[in-house]
Amino acid sequence: MENCIFCKIANGEIPAATLYEDSDFRVILDLGPASKGHALILPKAHAANIYELPDETAGKAMILAKHMATRLTEELKCDGFNIVQNNGEIAGQTVFHFHMHLIPRYQGDNVGITWKPGKLTDKDREEILAKFK
Hints:
Elements: H1 5-10, E1 18-21, E2 25-29, E3 39-43, H2 55-76, E4 80-84, E5 100-105, H3 122-131
Antiparallel strand pairs: 1-2, 2-3, 3-5, 4-5
């Protein structure tokens, strides 16, 4: 994608604080971090969201997320970890290039990644299950 900022960052056209790079991905520190060490996994090949991402790339991204979360936890001594991936504006996606947020969590950090649990109704359960049969 010619005008995709994350394509340009992932492929080294725009400088970034790079934690890791291989032939498929670049992992950078987020310029607007939710917490100390907040990083982004960026695939070098453009896909707007998870729906467009090839299965092989999706699998590699999750393995990389596991490795980076482990390393960030060891190095930063955080108390927990969120791995977040948003798809679509309604879900909080603001840059339309697939990416994963790696967010170290610390006691008292006030980072908000929560929701109020609802209730799975019998009707919703049956409707959803029927679609998967």
